[in-house]
Amino acid sequence: MNLLARINARTLPLIVTSLLFVALFAFGSVSYDSFFSAQVFLNLFIDNAFVIVVAIGMTFVILTGGIDLSVGSIVALTTMVTAALVEQHHWSIWAVIPLVLLMGCAFGVMMGVLIQYFELQPFIVTLGGMFLARGLCYVISIDSISITDPSYAAVSEYRIMFGEEAFLSISAVIALVTLAIGIFLAQYTRFGRTVYAIGGNERSAILMGLPVARTKILVYTLSGFCSALGGVLVTFYMLSGYGLHALGLEMDAIASAVIGGTLLTGGVGYLAGTLVGVLILGVIQSLIAFDGSLSSWWTRIAIGVLLCLFCLMQRFFEHGGSKLSALFSYWNKPEEEGSAGSGAQPAR
Amino acid sequence: MSTEPILVMKDICKSFPGVVALKNAQLRLFPGEVHAVMGQNGAGKSTLIKALTGVDLPDSGEIRLQGKPIQPTSVNEAQKIGISTVYQEVNLCPNLSVAENIFIGRFPMRGFAIDWKAIERESKAALAALNIHIDVNQTLSMYPVAIQQMVAIARALSTEAQVLILDEPTSSLDEGEVERLFDALRQLKAKGMAILFVTHFLDQVYAISDRITVLRNGEFIGEYAASALPRIDLINAMVGREVNEAVSATNGASATDITNAKPFVSTQGLASRGGMRPLDLDVYQGQVLGLGGLLGSGRTETARMLFGIDATDAGTVKVEGKTVKINSPYKAVRQGLAFCPEDRKTEGIVADLSIRENIILALQARRGVFRFLSKRTQTAIADEYIKQLGIRTPDAEKPIGQLSGGNQQKALLARWLATDPKMLILDEPTRGIDIAAKLEIMELVKAQCRKGLAILFISSEMSEVLRVSDRIAVLRDRQKIGEIAGQDADEQRIFQMIAGAEA
After folding, report:
1. Which of B:263-292 have CB within 8 Å of A?
2. A207–B104 C-beta distance less than 8 A
3. Is A342 close to B100, i.e. CB distance below 8 A?
4. Whole-angstrom Cα distance, residue A99 to residue A39?
5. In terms of CA atoms, which chain A residue is nearest residue B112?
6. Which letter, b or e, does each residue of B155-193 get, where b requires 16 or more Cβ atoms within 10 Å of its Cβ?
7. Least CA distance to A325: which residue of chain B?
């Protein structure tokens, strides 16, 4: 029973998601020459580094039962501020990056305070943040600003080699380090567990004496930070700042988290799942690129179908899971007549 | 039991806007005892506990823990000084593991990381102390409520608690589960823990508690040794003796003769798991059947079962002699039943709609959206009931939220009468309205009854039940313990029945 029970509504989506990723990658390897290579796999991390980072912040927010729609706009604003300061005001990269990261945090704190202390809906507050940040981009410039600073180009082109052929970019490494820190935060710190507790039952969390208010604000701050960091990675990737960067990224991040097994109602999900979610979106893009004949919009169609399927699956396992456990509680108990008790026996 | 109380609450006063919730309440708690706090609805039990756990600060009064004055301002603070609380509903996180639920908020750390190994070890030990042996890494929601309740207690205890407060911990448990909980409590008691136990179940009070404090209307009535307080005295202390003569005048109107009549609704052994025990009940047309019993005796549960809101898992219901399955309010309405729920504000009126719209609501729902009632018909129906029931309002278009409680209640009555039901279930129709309106409502109930309606009448005021009922079914601890004809009944007799053999 233990093994069966452990594969429950919690872990099963993660397993299914991982299997799906393997299946998609295998499909690509069989269908297209040269798909099956270390570099194609590593490219998934390189091309989606910023999505991974942004989705990590998003996962934390969703785990508390909230949502952050501002992430894509904050990414765009970050690229814009970076490009303007580096190109037009000739700031050093070492001054610009801390500044934009701080700006992302400030955005997050602001939204978190509005949500926590004024009891506003996260959806509305972050929707406001989304419009605000996107609008601010165009205050700086309505056109794209290329970044010609040599240090950006250097970071962008730097390759960390794995053996002869395969390599990762600095951005991909930053994304993986962020992921590692995120997993540690979520699983091994008081902050992380409080996040899960809030998502499970906020009222209980308060009554258990957990720092709910502080944690909720911190979660939006973290998401703001991750968005800004994602923005920095975009500047490395695109070498430009533009108000139209990362359009709809918030939806990709939400989709990745959900496909990775995070419940929008909060309290359930793993960051590892979110990573696999991003990779699935990435592998679909790769498949379409390798095919060459399909429009890139097929990615969207695939994501749409996958999302619905995964939500359905979660709902099914939730119900199936509870039915399963109810069944077990009866099995564990000798048949007895009368109204005395449903599974009052300890489960062993 | 030691002679020095560990906790003393003295002259605690607390008022909320418009209500005095506590007036000089007292409480003494000794180590190694289970102390029950008893009282009717609104007696101030929960206010007293909230004052103790830092949820609501008292206006005045003194709380001493081990002789030192304390004034907890938050749940956390109360917990830190050794006062832990387990609430009625399990206040844990269902998505976290059992072990995590016990330790969250005070995780043992190893460096920067949470020491999960230690948590598993210690939570196993904490549960073993309560004689529970389960997989602590399993998600909490996988376990039945009784186990979850035990986990909550284990959490409360692992904070080095000196005082454990249990606020109606048994309300969702069945008998076997309650026994497990009591075993755990006895162990804790033997270790010298002071336990404050709030419940509505009389049997449980006598099964577990050493002493009893009774509150009534926010006032301290007395502190008694459980063994020296017969049930009937306990009930009298809770209910009080001020019986309003005008209200309790027994009803003279003779009941319809039922010796030959068939019951409209009749239940055999109707029961729900964790709710009502098997119940036989007959409701006749032209008669008011009153449900008598204390808070928590299962009055509302009975109504909800009959109306198909709560699922039943045993027994049968017959309507006019035919066995039917009522598993949703929709089906109940189709059988000619109507239900005025207890909580008028949240389950009854739609405050922003007009009186007319509120009255028409159930009728229109019954007819379906395609057979729309014209505004003229609606107004005619509304005006008719406004006149018939004496609803005091300038016109039918006034938002119902602006009416007084009594008039709102009449409008709700009108809503169900408009659907022309055969049986009306009234759950606390007189709560929160003034005495004149109460009398009026009761008169209306009797008048409807004389027209041939079967009525099930529920009220926490025993005197009202006595006044309107032709027969009274007496409930105790979610079980019907007897039935008594209206003209033979008085409060003393019913309370003696509730008190049981001891009386």
Report:
1. 271, 273-274, 277-278
2. no
3. no
4. 33
5. A189
6. bbbbbebbbbbbbbbbebbbbbbbbbbbebbeebbeeeb
7. B142
Q: Does domain B7-239 have CATH number 3.90.226.10?
A: no
Report the residue of A62, A333, A339 to disrupt the B interface, i.e. the one with the largest count of B CBs within 10 Å: A339
Nearest CA in chain A to B135: A347
Angle of CA points B275, B280, B284, to nearest 5°? 120
Q: Which two tokens stand for residue A228?
A: 């800004």
B79 touches chain A (CB under 8 A): yes
Nearest CA in chain A to B133: A346
List the structure tokens of B224. Answer: 């008694």
Burial of residue B346 (CB within 10 Å: 0-12, 13-18, 19+) is: exposed
Q: Are strands B423-427 and B454-458 parallel, antiparallel or unpaired?
A: parallel
Query: For residue range B96-150, what is the model confidence (pLDDT) as tens digits?
Result: 999 999 999 888 999 889 999 999 999 999 888 887 889 999 889 888 877 888 8
Q: d(Cα A333, Cα A346) in Å, to the nearest integer?
A: 9
Residues of chain B with CATH 3.40.50.300: 7-239, 264-336+421-503
CA distance B214 to B28: 12
Supply B85's token pair: 């609380």
pLDDT score at B243: 41
Show me where the domains of chain A are located: 2-322
Query: In B381-467, which ranges are E strands?
Result: 423-427, 454-458
Min distance B160 CA to chain A CA atoms (Å): 15
Q: How far apart are the C-alpha atoms of A256 and A72, rounded to whole Å?
A: 14
A347/B95 Cβ within 8 A:
no
Query: Which CATH superfamily does the domain covering B264-336+421-503 fall into?
Result: P-loop containing nucleotide triphosphate hydrolases (3.40.50.300)
Residue A348: its pLDDT value, please?
33
Of A64, A208, A268, A331, which to mutate for an interface test with B (greatest number of B Cβ within 10 Å)? A208
Inter-chain CB proximity B93 and A197 less than 8 Å: yes
Is A10 within 8 Å of B74 when comparing Cβ atoms? no
What's residue B42's pLDDT?
67
Right CATH number for A2-322 from 3.40.960, 2.30.30, 3.90.1010, 1.10.3470? 1.10.3470
- pLDDT of res. A41: 93
User: Pick from B155, B166, B151: which is nearest to B86 by CA?
Assistant: B166
